[in-house]
Amino acid sequence: MAATGGTKAILAALVANAGIAVAKFVGFVITGSSSMLAESVHSVADTSNQGLLLLGQRTAKRKATSEHPFGYGRDRYFYSFIVALMLFTLGAAFALYEGVHKVQHPEELSSPLVAVVILVVAIALETYSFAMAIKESKAIKGDRSWWGFVRQSKTPELPVVLLEDAGALFGLVFALIGVGLSVVTGDPVWDGIGTLMIGVLLGIIAITLIIEMKSLLIGEGSGEEELDTIVGELTVGEVERVIHIRTQYIGPDELLIAAKLAMRRGMALTEVAAAIDDAERRVRDAVPTARLIYLEPDLDRTPA
């Protein structure tokens, strides 16, 4: 689970965000910067989010029951969806509200140098967390682009951590720009503008995650390449063709396959059973996540 679920990346992000949140709150109390406050809330939300991702990994390991015969693998999708909602409500919505307020009623910053130092240190910590997430993701990303990985990955935690860390880094840069321009120009409205930029950024990331996690939560099947592999492994030997097939990920590491197979005419029952067993073995060897396979033998009734 640690390898595929990115546990190391989640723990790195949790430790980094917890420390950053404390530092940012101290910076906000000293400086009164709205950008610092928005980033503080953002870091608190991120810390809570990593806790939820770890909780989802834990609850997903529960054994199947009669009420949930396919297990609890989708818990990881559920908690990742909750994380996306929290990022939108606690992160984006708060930053947008605070930004509008500070633009309408700008306030002078006190001790802006403190904010700058804290933001620079936070950028260093977030860079470490982001590098860890990239390292963990490369193991399962394959030849896909990073955007393709976020869109197509069946493992929800790593895309969540990647986008969270990317948003945190850019958010820190926006906060630094807002504070810096406020000091250089003497106009504190730039601090509010920086806060608005943070809110817009977090909103875009949160909506992207909500869309992707919702898709996983309601059920996604195999991608085109994986489906072609499954069909190719099924249509060997006594199997003439796949009449129809349905696939669905019931957890990041558990694929359900149901298919009706056209068998060679005249086969004995024992031969059909052996052919079905061989087909299941070939699919499991080619696609290790295919843990639940239901194959129905039939005759090809396609008109000649």
From TrEMBL:
Q: Which residues form the signal peptide?
A: none
- Superkingdom of origin organism: Bacteria
Q: What are the entry keywords?
A: Membrane, Transmembrane, Transmembrane helix, Transport
**Cation efflux protein transmembrane domain span:** 10-217
Keyword Cell membrane attributed: no
- Chief localisation class: membrane
Keyword NAD carried by entry: no
* An annotated GO cellular component: membrane
Q: Which InterPro entries match?
A: Cation_efflux (IPR002524), Cation_efflux_CTD_sf (IPR036837), Cation_efflux_TM (IPR058533), Cation_efflux_TMD_sf (IPR027469), SLC30A9 (IPR040177)
* Transmembrane parts of this sequence: 77-97, 109-134, 161-183, 189-211
What is a single molecular function from GO for this protein?
monoatomic cation transmembrane transporter activity
GO terms classed as biological process: zinc ion transport
Kindly list the places in or outside the cell where this protein is found, as annotated in its UniProt entry. Answer: Membrane
Q: How does it sit in the membrane?
A: Multi-pass membrane protein
Q: What is the protein name stated in its UniProt record?
A: Cation diffusion facilitator family transporter
